Amino acid sequence: PEYNKIPFVFLTAIEDRNVILERKRKGAVAYLVKPVDEADLLLTVELHLKKYMELKAAVHQATTDELTGLGNKRFLIKSLRSLLSIREYRDLTVLFLDLDFFKKLNDCNGHPAGDAVLIEIGNLLHSMLRPYDVAARYGGDEFVVVLPETSAAQAEIVAEKIRTGIENLPIGGNGCNRITSSFGLASLMGNEAEICAALDLDGLKELFEPDQSDAVDWEGLEKEKAAVADLLLSFADAALYESKNTFCPECGYQSENEHNFTDGFCPRCRGSRLTEGRNRISVYHGRQGETLIGRKESGKR
Fold this sequence. Notes:
The chain has 301 residues and is an alpha/beta fold. It folds into 2 domains: 9-62, no CATH class; 73-246, Alpha-Beta Plaits (2-Layer Sandwich), CATH 3.30.70.270. The chain has 10 helices and 9 strands. It has helices at 17-25, 38-62, 73-83, 102-109, 111-128, 152-167, 192-199, 205-208, 218-244, 288-291; strands at residues 9-12, 30-33, 92-99, 134-139, 142-148, 181-187, 246-247, 254-255, 281-283. A hairpin with a 2-residue loop joins strand 4 and strand 5 (142-148). Helix 4 (102-109) crosses helix 5. It is flat.
């Protein structure tokens, strides 16, 4: 898909009008008949290359986050769907990350300091990821990384490196000199059961490697793959919320509002074996969407 805007010029000895029209319908920007004037050929190529470069620059601007230089949300969704458009069932993991108490950092040190942190995180992701990985600023202080051909277990290692890198970023200011981050992960193969349940599929292999002995509805398959992309993002987001929450393993209560646990006990069962929220990594296991009690209790994230 990234090559479908490249202009191509037909240079031929065929003067048939129907052939010319057919080539133009298929995308030819110009159709030159031999013998061709050299100046005409060079000018045609020059003009269409200029238009192509202008289009390419406009697309880059429309899909790039101006502050960090990473892709934006539009770029992310397009890239994720493109990665899932292949006709081979390979693993892929989506990593959703969010900065902890970023508003507090802005309040303490000012918005320019907050912007500087976002820029540094963009640089960090650029330096840590592979050339074919996808990194995007999803919005505000949220980022998404797509890791092709990577399992959830492998992605956890990557996430931990990024988490440590963010925690070690040098931050000057008035008391807020440390930033932490929380992560949510969802993978294609690791969450196959949840994806198939949501889309009413027997298995994902039939989606990526369909039996071509029968007629295949390719357009329908691409729509289902787009739905898979949306599910992976929502699963990773749900796991992110879980990583933000303080959790009581005794009764299952969890909340993002740390004030509910100020005395060190669960407000529901008074249990004290609590898993502290934030600055950690959570992998989606299919239960988060039903148990996120504290998801909307606080806007601090």
